[in-house]
Design a protein that fits this description.
alpha/beta, D-Maltodextrin-Binding Protein, domain 2, nine-stranded mixed β-sheet, 10 helices, 11 strands, sequence-specific DNA binding, LysR family transcriptional regulator, WH-like_DNA-bd_sf, DNA-binding transcription factor activity
Length: 312
Amino acid sequence: MFASLPLTALRAFESASRLSSFKAAAEELSVTPTAISHQIRSLEDWLGVALFERLPRQVRLTEGGERLFRSLHGALLEVAQSVDTLRPHRSGSSLTLSTTAAFAALWLVPRLGRFYAQHPHINVRIDTHCEVIDLHQDASVDLVLRYSLDDYPNLYGLCLFDESFAVYGSPEQVALAARRTPTLISVRWHNSRLYAHGWQAWCAKAGERWLDQQPVNREYDEEHYALQAAIAGQGLVLASNVLVSESVASGLLMPYRGEVQVDGAGYSALCVPGRERHPPVRAFFRWLQDEARLSGLTPRAQPSAATAGNPA
């Protein structure tokens, strides 16, 4: 059934596609760049289609090459994970996830102890770099926790919860806001679609005329800085109900007119199809589902990824 498959050439192609470089693929597979080039050329001859565009100092996948890479990468990843489950692991397993620094600090890390209590042999590495990771290209990351308005049809996804924005402050600042215009604290987001005109939208919905009175406005680059400013009594913050939940539960912050909320986007856990069956990833998905249910925050819609569902 598989006797005619050029497995060596396919492995060379997968490495070169993932790394976007024949030279890097050669280093990964411990062969010469010329050998990688020959393997890929033989694969193209076997298929009868070009897989790469050869450009000055770089290569780029053709449409056919992109299609082959997506299916091949997922298949090889599943084989590698199946083999990995059969090998003895003396020091347990690990997984790497990517998310924002704010979500990690304000929601994930405070709850992570419960995951370790259930799975003491699984080590979680959290990557909080700002760049959006292409999971089909970067095999070092097992899953991402992403906040977005977008769909991800080529990824396995679990929709955790939707976000809304409300106004919060220390008990003293909330009491003062009923008598005078407060200092307003907000976040300068890199993606303006997710926080555009936030205070304007909230004030319009609440019928508050604070913006007409030219209030003092404190602006921060990250949500956790804005929340710390609010906890310190520096004003009221327009904040995510997801990210503020720990501070509200501990009494550090409380809502001001909590019934007035502005809709945000949604949080999803995403991985390359097939990777959700890897035991550490499967365990983390299940734990995330439990934590989402405990939080009482349910998504407004079904998971957006075409391959979404419960981990097997």
